[in-house]
Design a protein that fits this description.
Strand content of chain A: 35-45%
Number of strands of chain A: 15
Order of helices and strands of chain A: HEEHEEEEHEEEEEHEEEHE
Strand order of the largest sheet of chain A: 1-14-11-13-12-15
Number of helices of chain A: 5
Oligomer: homodimer
Radius of gyration of chain A: 20 Å
Helix content of chain A: 10-25%
């Protein structure tokens, strides 16, 4: 054994592991982790809601989501892409937001005729492509807001303390099973009001066979 | 440092790394690795070719593929799923095979109305679902053969020696970039006639943003 050389990185890994094991709360403190696939959807601002569904109209709840206060709305839109191809019945998620935004998987974007849409954290839409949105009362030309949402984990301070991470840190999510995949860039989105919850898009969920497996591990 | 405990697994990892570094051929021997997305496609047997395109008909080359002798054919099919939904212009890959087989991404399967298709290595179609295939000269009821192809790497003996793997071993493929993903179950398919080549499906390619990145690493 004396002849084995150990790199600095390996020593650091060992030390980190030992420190982590000694300081980590007991396993029973592991928060429940829900991993979900988000199908393509839109978020609307007040002004676009007015144009698309009528002045002063409100979203109505179709189904509550796991995150408190969030819901899938009964209202849907038609999205028209750059080559006049369209996606109908695009679900709107409520409540209304400051800016309208559309989240698509690459498969959706390609089927619409986009060569490329940027991978962004929700809300970070500066310089992203736009599209036309059509509702029962009117049409909105979205100047920007079309993104592929980066895979992310919603986390409250207790979860962040458990995992030893902070807002915007990048974690890994291992999904086991026949199509085992590790997502290496899962961004932490801290918020005191949220439940521990990974959101991936439908391409990611289909790639890893999310519906097939119960072997899931979130790692720093 | 004396107080750091090292697990047996960690010692084994270190030893393996050192042995590998000392015995590996020089970096210049690394074979060229091409990673490709396979869009949905069909393979046909002689009998089904006869039914779909006429007695004694042959596939014609639309585009040669990276693997010698393989090609995308000009001929395409219509695939009809369990809820009468269909995929038109399903590309056929040549040459003809012993058994007909259809390879779909989960996104395709779901859009067709399949709740589930099994993840299999090409050719392993026992007990998989079937479908209807429609060609210009007839219809074939495929009793089985619908699969999601498991991500795999075609490798010849030189490549296998380089990586220290054998037929049916499972490797990992790390794809870096904004949507960094590591595929943890890449099956080795050994054949003396092939070039080093990873095939993933469109869901997997879209999940990792394959078109975005040049950071790719195949690992034992």
């Amino acid at each position: 054994m004396a002849a084995v050389t150990i790199t600095r990185e390996e020593v650091e890994q060992l030390v980190r592991r030992i420190v982590r094991e000694r300081t980590r709360p007991s396993a029973s403190a592991l928060p429940t982790l829900l991993v979900e696939a988000s199908a393509r959807h839109a978020h609307l601002c007040r002004a676009d809601m007015d144009t698309l569904f009528g002045e002063g109209s409100e979203l109505t709840v179709f189904k509550d989501l796991y995150q408190p206060g969030n819901f899938a709305a009964k209202e849907t839109l038609t999205l028209i892409g750059p080559r006049s191809r369209l996606i109908s019945n695009l679900r709107i998620l409520g409540p209304l937001r400051k800016e309208s935004q559309v989240e698509l998987a690459f498969t959706d974007a390609i089927s619409l005729g986009f060569n490329d849409i940027p991978i962004r954290i929700s809300g970070d839409t500066e310089g992203t492509p736009g599209c036309l949105l059509m509702g029962p009362k009117g049409v909105v030309e979205l100047k920007q807001g079309l993104i592929r949402a980066a895979i992310h984990v919603h986390m409250n301070p207790a979860g962040a303390e458990y995992f030893g991470v902070k807002h915007k840190d990048v974690m890994r999510l291992r999904v086991g099973g026949a199509a085992g995949v590790t997502f290496d860039r899962v961004t932490v989105r801290m918020d005191p009001t949220v439940r521990l919850n990974v959101h991936m898009d439908t391409d990611e969920a289909n790639a890893c066979g999310l519906h097939y497996t119960k072997e899931i591990e979130l790692m720093k």
